[in-house]
Amino acid sequence: xxxxxxxxxxxxxxxxxxxxxxxxxxxxxxxxxxxxxxxxxxxxxxxxxxxxxxxxxxxxxxxxxxxxxxxxxxxxxxxxxxxxxxxxxxxxxxxxxxxxxxxxxxxxxxxxxxxxxxxxxxxxxxxxxxxxxxxxxxxxxxxxxxxxxxxxxxxxxxxxxxxxxxxxxxxxxxxxxxxxxxxxxxxxxxxxxxxxxxxxxxxxxxxxxxxxxxxxxxxxxxxxxxxxxxxxxxxxxxxxxxxxxxxxxxxxxxxxxxxxxxxxxxxxxxxxxxxxxxxxxxxxxxxxxxxxxxxxxxxxxxxxxxxxxxxxxxxxxxxxxxxxxxxxxxxxxxxxxxxxxxxxxxxxxxxxxxxxxxxxxxxxxxxxxxxxxx
Amino acid sequence: xxxxxxxxxxxxxxxxxxxxxxxxxxxxxxxxxxxxxxxxxxxxxxxxxxxxxxxxxxxxxxxxxxxxxxxxxxxxxxxxxxxxxxxxxxxxxxxxxxxxxxxxxxxxxxxxxxxxxxxxxxxxxxxxxxxxxxxxxxxxxxxxxxxxxxxxxxxxxxxxxxxxxxxxxxxxxxxxxxxxxxxxxxxxxxxxxxxxxxxxxxxxxxxxxxxxxxxxxxxxxxxxxxxxxxxxxxxxxxxxxxxxxxxxxxxxxxxxxxxxxxxxxxxxxxxxxxxxxxxxxxxxxxxxxxxxxxxxxxxxxxxxxxxxxxxxxxxxxxxxxxxxxxxxxxxxxxxxxxxxxxxxxxxxxxxxxxxxxxxxxxxxxxxxxxxxxx
Lengths: 374, 374
Fold this sequence. Notes:
CATH topology of the largest domain in chain A: Dihydrodipicolinate Reductase, domain 2
Number of domains of chain A: 2
Mean pLDDT of chain A: 92
CATH architecture of the largest domain in chain A: 2-Layer Sandwich
Largest sheet of chain A: 9 strands, mixed
Helix content of chain A: 25-40%
Shape of chain A: globular
Strand content of chain A: 15-25%
Largest interface: A-B, 33 and 33 residues
Radius of gyration of chain A: 20 Å
Keywords (chains A, B): Oxidoreductase, Signal
Signal peptide (chains A, B): 1-28
Order of helices and strands of chain A: HHHEHEHEEHEHEHEHHEEEEEEEHHE
Number of helices of chain A: 12
Strand order of the largest sheet of chain A: 14-13-12-11-7-10-9-8-15
Structural class of chain A: alpha/beta
CATH superfamily of the largest domain in chain A: Dihydrodipicolinate Reductase, domain 2
Domain Gfo/Idh/MocA-like oxidoreductase N-terminal (chains A, B): 40-163
Protein name (chains A, B): Gfo/Idh/MocA family oxidoreductase
Low-confidence stretches of chain A: 1-35
Oligomer: homodimer
Distance between the termini of chain A: 33 Å
GO molecular function (chains A, B): nucleotide binding; oxidoreductase activity
């Protein structure tokens, strides 16, 4: 049985035993003799997000564990191997990455590289028969998103975008408010996602070739997400504006963008994203009340209120919840909370926002249907 | 000495004794033998704002008091006369209003009529030699604002717009943060001022002829104000968008408007106003911190926070503070916190927002200098 067949069986819920026997950690971490398992994850790209968020989170996960790494930096291999007990055979570089197909310890590849490398490594991972988590934004363009989705479909592997908030409890509560119409119909949503960047101007996020865009590609995607899960709808039209005040620092990426969404139910969305100011909030006004999160999209703990009072949920690592949910989707056929279609939809909106700006703040129509609504 | 000469002397700080002797209430309310006084105010228009806010506030004021009323509704005359002990001679209707010039009990006329009547009655009040408070928005157009300002200048009377928040302590604290650069330079300000209107669709606020516009003219003026006092600057450019979802209810006034301001220092302002959703907040991100008010512009008590902690000020009627400040300006030459130029500037911005919308969300340049900055 090759990985692809194995994964197919896994998806159908038939391969638990084989999996657990091939993943020793699973037993130590809650495997119960074949009914449950822990999938092995390989992190591709060992930058700060992998180092300070994902690897620590993978020490707490129950449905998956850190099994391998893929890095272009030789020195990191030994550090990570020692810190996390990763065997030599589960350590890859970008050149030999494709041989990961033969590694039964690795079930999921999590692509945590600069945006420009998301498509390439997600597609290579899929072709190696591995399930894929692709960090947000999913890719540089809608075209690349399509290529990732096709590669995963062709390979019969699962695909998720690294939208950790869909596993986060305050965000779940917001989605519940919307689904159950706790406060009636949503009339207005404000979504801010911004931080002030004053560090190294040569960081990849500020390099268009690597990032594909600035604030909008990085933080803006969160505000797009917020607006959508706060209304439960995809926008039907968008207008947008760009502001630049530090062109020497933001040499070729957008610094600040505002955008306005029209939703099919009549709600208005007001979006702010920036690499030049701090803002992190979500607020929705509804026909029978309101809800808000502030902060709404950092690593947490988030905080929130509604017309019914303060929201209180225990804090867990968002990344732990996210990766466990994706592993659960593979293992137990639970919902994929952030499928590839969601990432693609957000890139369609990103492209519409850039187009509105390029065309003098013109209104751009969107025909998204229910794409990516979960 | 006629009223005009009297007022001129008053402004020069010479007429305290004369004033107190003609305004008996002043003695009971803190007059100290001539150095202080209480000016008589006549409210023009006895709608809900006069009834539930201004008249009660005038029971608490120390520099002014309710001395007269001007109403087009005969039945209200007796009710108000009895409730507030207003003598027959201080009760006017719209026809005999101009004879108020001969009434020494009235120092200030507060115009609380529908927007379309602000200019006419402010000008008639000025020509009657009375100081003027004109409710916001100052008038239907910049042209009308100019006419009001000219009439007051010509008559040598003082003029303020009913911007109560300039006397409100949380708002004062925000202005102090900005002036003293407590948190450095302001980078971004979000200002929301909106409420959901579901009442009588025939109310004057939803009638363009009487209101001059919808959400923007009513609540939008607050968000414009917020953005300006949160940056301490006038915007140099604006873009705007309009949204309509209940055209049957909002038959001829704007329902929801978003606008984006560019400030000369580089700050970006993001404005939301609506008659179809509830939102009431101000947030500013600065180079060394942040501040916020929520609510930011209702009748209070307001509430606020900053990077230095929660803001806490005792609550007083905003209208009391506002009217006392204006009376103090007349009596003691203290600052006019909301001069006519401020109201005019806001109408220039309102007109630019409507123009941006009419011209397809186009960016409109503004050349306001320091107009109305207090």
